[in-house]
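Quick one:
INPUT:
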């Protein structure tokens, strides 16, 4: 008797994935890692445009990272048969996820009301830049724009007197993917209790705004008088709290509590500073911020980096070297915990990919997942979910409804150092 596959957190959950680029695919990626069955419906002729963004060997490197474990069904939506196939699929799935600009699904006849008519138990999740309602909703948008309208870009990085700066990673896209995943998992739980499906949405703007910390409450208290500032290298409300220059790296050192300052003084072999009337409390240190920063920087200047980190760690002072990606990927801690993982790709070979960020004690062992080629699973999906015959599939191929491509379409490449988030 064949051994049964071990049960996984999302075993048996079927997800129809009409997402592209990062924010939507990151949600379905998390779900697939938890064991959901994900069929990615791609719009021909190119499919997910992330396939040709920042390529190596005609393969979108970020596409591989985000779409492992999904099955690709690529349809030519210029042919009305494509939408008919999606409508047939909807009847067999638990969840439909999409991240087109608001209005696109409705123009395809796939708005929630239409979808619900086909499958009342379905959970439909829309991911957008600014939400499905409100004055900004009709606009297309990417990560950074959500950060702009959330008031986050203004303070995210850069010197207080300089301009805002672009982050080098798509934090908002992944945050939004996680928001959508949490929503989908919660809606599945709700359905398991009530039998009811529902519509939910997540947006870059709402997710970014949720990441706002104390500034929102404080501006309500102080109104226009509060203008949160970019911090630059050092916090202005806590001291010392910021980036110091080490021998090999920038070092991020944080002392949000007075006891950490005292521990730092011990680590620096200057315990008398902890009792000094100019430095004993955070308020005193903030008043004498320049002197504190100078004292700590002078200690870093005089101490080899490894030795400084060892002494800070021994004294439980929160500190970390600012690693670049290559250093992070090679770090034994990230390797040991599977934070970074090896994955196989038919076009790239073995590559490093980010691992799954939640640790379950059961039901979610890491899997060997590969990202699909465009339309790789056209036949499997149509046979498995819709029971299509070989003749019917051949006819759809002849009519140009099904699209399959052995390599991702190439596109002019930015040099790696110029590679940007979309
Ligand atoms: C990502 C985004 C900015 C792309 O904008 P866009 O290329 O203009 O795509 P839209 O979603 O607005 O769709 C516009 C049209 O292109 C079509 N289209 C979208 N993706 C397509 C694809 N991969 N291939 C072919 N056609 C496609 C749509 O069907 C739509 O057709 P219609 O106008 O006839 O209805 C937009 O989809 C969006 O704002 N999505 C929500 C926010 C988001 O997730 N942003 C990405 C974060 S990583």
């Amino acid at each position: 008797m064949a051994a049964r596959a071990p049960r996984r957190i999302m075993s048996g959950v079927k997800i129809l994935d009409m997402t592209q680029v990062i924010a939507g695919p990151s949600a379905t990626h998390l779900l697939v890692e938890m064991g959901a069955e994900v069929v990615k419906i791609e719009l021909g002729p190119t499919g997910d445009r992330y396939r040709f963004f920042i390529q190596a060997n005609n393969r979108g490197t970020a596409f591989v990272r985000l779409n492992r474990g999904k099955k690709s069904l690529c349809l030519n939506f210029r042919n009305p048969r494509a939408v008919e196939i999606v409508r047939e699929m909807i009847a067999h799935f638990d969840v439909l996820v999409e991240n087109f600009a608001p209005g696109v699904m409705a123009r395809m006849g796939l708005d929630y009301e239409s979808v619900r008519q086909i499958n009342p138990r379905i959970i439909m999740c829309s991911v957008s830049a600014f939400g499905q309602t409100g004055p900004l909703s009709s606009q297309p948008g990417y990560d950074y724009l959500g950060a702009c309208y959330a008031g986050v870009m203004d303070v995210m990085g850069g010197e207080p007197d300089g301009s805002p700066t672009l982050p080098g990673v798509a934090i908002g896209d992944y945050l939004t993917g996680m928001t959508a995943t949490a929503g989908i998992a919660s809606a599945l739980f709700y359905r398991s209790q009530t039998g009811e499906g529902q519509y939910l949405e997540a947006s870059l703007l709402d997710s970014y705004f949720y990441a706002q910390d104390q500034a929102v409450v404080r501006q309500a208290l102080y109104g226009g008088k509060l203008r949160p500032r970019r911090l630059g290298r050092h916090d202005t409300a806590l001291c010392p709290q910021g980036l110091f220059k080490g021998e090999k790296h920038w070092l991020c050192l944080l002392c949000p509590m007075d006891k950490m300052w005292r521990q730092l003084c011990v680590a620096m072999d200057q315990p008398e500073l902890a009792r000094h009337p100019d430095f004993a409390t955070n308020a005193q240190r903030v008043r004498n911020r320049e002197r504190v920063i100078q004292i700590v920087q002078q200690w870093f200047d005089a101490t080899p980096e490894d030795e400084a980190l060892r002494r800070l760690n021994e004294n439980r002072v929160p500190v970390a070297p600012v690693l670049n990606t290559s250093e992070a990927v090679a770090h034994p801690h990230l390797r040991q915990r599977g934070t970074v993982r090896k994955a196989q790709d038919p076009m790239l070979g073995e590559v490093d990919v980010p691992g799954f960020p939640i640790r379950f004690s059961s039901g979610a062992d890491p899997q060997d997942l590969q990202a699909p080629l465009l339309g790789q699973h056209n036949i499997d999906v149509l046979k498995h979910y819709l029971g299509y015959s070989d003749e019917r599939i051949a006819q759809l191929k002849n009519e140009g409804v099904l699209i399959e491509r052995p390599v991702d379409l190439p596109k002019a490449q930015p040099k790696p150092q110029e590679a940007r988030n979309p």
